[in-house]
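Reply to dn_fold:

You asked what the input looked like. This is it:
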Amino acid sequence: MAKELSPRTLSGICHLRDIACQRSSATQSPPKDTPDKLGETWYELTTLRIDSMKMVEDALISQLSVLCHRKIAQAEDALEKAKTQTCTYALRRANSCWRLMMGNR
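and this is what came back:
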């Protein structure tokens, strides 16, 4: 199924989120080389996380699709069985009526 993110990766995402929150509230500007490196790291970690969620989503879609097809097939079988039983009952009833009519003559 889906590959889980390691605790280290999740910790990295949280750390970068904390840095971003601290920087947005700080009045001083960060060093010039740090934002690019942090941005790339943030992008890589977040992309990995999104890719993992997509794998989970795809697996759930596949399982749901299989379940839906199975339930549709079961419903169609039940409908056919009900039709057959109804026809059989109707034929028996008609046959009984026919015998009664023929016996009364």
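The mean pLDDT is 80.
Hope that clears it up.
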